[in-house]
Amino acid sequence: MPLLDKIKEERVRNPYLKELIKHLKQMGALEVDPLIATPGTAQLFQDKWHHHSDHTDYEAHNDSGGPSHGDYCD
Amino acid sequence: METAMKDLTVVIKPTRNCNLRCVYCSAGDPKARTLTITEVGTIIEKIVGRQIDSYTKFIWHGGEPLLAGLNFYRQVVEIQKPLLAGGYHIANVVQSNGTLISDEWAKFFKDHGFGVGLSIDGPRDITNKTRVFPNSQGAFEAIKRGSEILTRHEVQHGYLVVISRLNVQWIEQIIEFMHEEKKRYKLVSVSPIGRAAEAYDLIMTEGNNYSDSQILLFRYWLDQGHFTDRAALWKYIVPILTGRPIECIFFENCQLSFIGVDCNGDVYPCGRFCGSGSFKYGNLVNDSWKQVINHPSRLALLARGKHLKTCQSCEYQKICNGGCPLQGILNGGLNKPDYNCRQYQRIFSEIKERIMREI
C-alpha cells in the first residue's frame, strides 16, 4: 500500500507537506490519476496543482522544467 | 511488447547553433543547419498523426531555438492548426537562453500559449561565470531582460539552473536568488555529453554535491515553505508518497513517452541522446513513424529494466527504475544504473525519513 494511503492528513504537522498530501488525496478522490507516468497526466497534475496555488509558473521538465519532461537545458 | 505512445513529449532541436558559448554546453554548434519548414511540417504530421486523440508536447530546444526565427514558429503554429482541429492535442514549450526575446516574441508566445523556460544559473556573478557570449561577456543582463519582457506580456516562464562544479558551492545563494525572483525553477545536474564531455573535469560535480543541493532545497521547502524548486522536488517526494515515479528519468519505460528529434530530422531516445549514432532510431523526414518506433535500439531501451540486476535489492527500485538510461549507459552500459544512483538513494532516504517524522 502506498505511504499516501496510510497517512491521516489531520495528523501531518508540517503545513507544506500537509498541503501536498491533501492535494494528492483530493486528486485520488476525483478518480484523476495524476501520477501515471506519462507526460499528459503528469502535466495534468502540474496544471491542477498550480490552479490551487498563487505561483507564477512554467510547465513541468522534466527538463527545462518539471515532472512531465526531463532535466533539459540548452 | 508495448510500443504505443499516446502521450508523447518530443524534444526537438530546430538548430544546434547558439549565440552563447556556455562553458558546460553539450549541444552548441555554430555550423549546424536549421530544420526547414517543409521538414518540420513532415515531422510534426508524422508524430502528431501517430494515433487519434494523441497528446504531444513539443519542447523546442537547441542550441538556441529562437535562432530559427519567429517566422519559423509562426509556420509551425499554422502546421499544427488543422491537427488541433482534427482532435489531436498539442502543447508547445521553448527552452531558451532568453537573450533574443523581444516584445514580438513575447506577444507570439502569449498569443499561442507557448510555455517558456529560460536557462540561468543564479545571481549575476554566478551566471556570468557559466553562461557567456562568444566574447566571454556574461549573459545575465540579457537573460533578465528577456524575462522582464515575458513578464510584461504575461507569458508564464520558469528558470532552469544547471548545477555544475562551477556553481554548486553557491547553492544557497542560488536558492535565495530564485526566492527573490519568484520564478519556478529547476536545479539539474550537468551531463557529460556532447561537447560537455570535453570539459568533464571542469564541470562535473563530485561526491554528494548534487544530492546535497537537492536535500538543501527540500529542507528549505519543508522548514520554511520556501518558494522553491517544487517541480524538481516532486520527482523525489511524490514517488515516496505514492510509490510511482512522475519524471522521465525514473519512468520504467521513458521510451513510451519521449523522443528527441535533431536538426536534420534524425530521431533519438530523447534530446540528450541527439548525435549519438548508435541510438539513432531513424529519420522522420524520410522514414515512417512505424519504422522509427520499431527500431531495435528503441526496443532494447524498452527492455532495459529486465537487465538492471543491481537494482533488484534496492528499496527504491520501483520509484527509480535504475534512473536515466543515458546516464546508465554513461555508467558502463544499458544494464547499469544511472551514475547518480547513490545520489538518488541519499535524496529518497532523506525525504522518506523526514516525512515519516512528520506523520
Share of helix of chain B, binned: 25-40%
Largest β sheet strand count, sense and barrel closure of chain A: none
How is the biggest beta sheet of chain B arranged?
9 strands, mixed
Strand fraction of chain A equals 5-15%
What general outline of chain B do the C-alpha atoms trace? globular
Uncertain segments of chain B are none
Number of helices of chain A: 3
Number of helices of chain B: 14
Largest interface, counted with CB-CB under 8 A? A-B, 46 and 71 residues
What fraction, in percent, of the residue positions of chain A are helical?
40-55%
Portion of residues in beta strands of chain B equals 5-15%
Structure characterization notes:
In chain A, 43% of the residues lie in helices and 5% in strands. Chain A contains 3 helices and 1 strand, in the order αααβ. Chain A has helices at 3-6, 15-29, 39-51, and one strand at residues 61-64. Chain A starts with a helix and ends in a 10-residue tail after the last strand. Mean pLDDT of chain A is 58; it is low at 32-41 and 48-74. Chain B is an alpha/beta fold. In chain B, 39% of the residues lie in helices and 13% in strands. A 9-stranded mixed sheet of chain B has the order 6-5-4-3-2-1-7-8-9. In chain B, strand 1, helix 1 (37-48) and strand 2 form a beta-alpha-beta unit. The chains are: A mainly alpha (74), B alpha/beta (359). At the A-B interface, helix 2, helix 3 and strand 1 of A face strand 1, strand 2, strand 3, strand 4 and strand 5 of B.
